[in-house]
Amino acid sequence: MSNRLYTTNEIQEKISTVAKGLSDSDLDKLCKKDHSKSTFDVSYPLFLRVPAHFTPAEKAEVLKDAKGVVRYTWEYEFERNGFIYAMSTQWYARNDEYVQRWLSKFE
């Protein structure tokens, strides 16, 4: 952690707090891989959006990638327009500056 600006939990908490106030179109962009890559240098969409009626089992299953590796968390879940959003768990030191730059736009 000594070389990190943020812990993974700090990133997730800060981004989810801001994301709850974003417009629907801006939130939609963060559910896309290419936008998430250019904004945060992450390899997966920042948010995973699923219908709010998903069961706990369905919610657990969608967190996994094609190889069965969990890539998202419901820890910072929020709901909007009948959908719930899970956040990527894939954060590394190289992402910190991108996160800091993005967060600074909302200060």
Low-pLDDT windows of residues: none
Structural class per helix/strand content?
alpha+beta
Q: State the major sheet.
A: 3 strands, antiparallel
Q: How much strand?
A: 15-25%
Helix content: 25-40%
So what's the oligomer here? single chain
Query: What shape does the CA trace take?
Result: globular
* CA(first)-CA(last) distance: 24 Å
The averaged pLDDT comes out at 95
Topology:
Layout: H1 8-19, H2 24-29, H3 33-40, E1 47-51, H4 56-62, E2 72-80, E3 83-88, H5 96-104
Antiparallel strand pairs: 1-3, 2-3
Question: What's the short version?
Answer:
By secondary structure, the protein is of the alpha+beta class. Helices cover 39% and strands 19% of the residues.
What does this protein structure show overall?
The structure is a single chain. The protein has 107 residues and is of the alpha+beta class. It is built from 5 helices and 3 strands. The protein has helices at residues 8-19, 24-29, 33-40, 56-62, 96-104, and strands spanning 47-51, 72-80, 83-88. A 3-stranded antiparallel β-sheet has the order 1-3-2, with helices on one face. β2 and β3 form a beta hairpin. The model has no long low-confidence stretch (mean pLDDT 95).
